Amino acid sequence: MKSNGREIRLIEPSVALADDRPLRDLTALGTPGPKAGFKLRALPHAGESSLSPDRFAASAFPAPIAEGRHGTYLISEQNIIRKKVLGHARGIEAHPPEAHLKADNWERIE
User: Fold this and answer.
1) Does a structural domain hold residue 25?
2) What are the average pLDDT values for consecutive 10-residue runs of the chain, which has 110 residues?
């Protein structure tokens, strides 16, 4: 995003470099890699075909497979953090609906 020809940097570079699916080349910011041992991913909500400016979701998941025991974390526009140990470090593709979060035992972090 640019303003007056200059980039507006709304995200700390180390957070942007932890994005496992960046929309553009970030190597000018540094070396891509995990932040505090986690990769980050912006997520659509399950079943949505287009993004809405009123909704967001993101996940943090352990960088190496061996670290999969630490769990995957989710947050959405509802500002609720949830955690689940998935047993892998691949992350998830979409923020699950509330019913699935409960049925799949995603722990709510207070």
Assistant:
1) no
2) 71 93 91 94 88 87 74 93 89 93 93
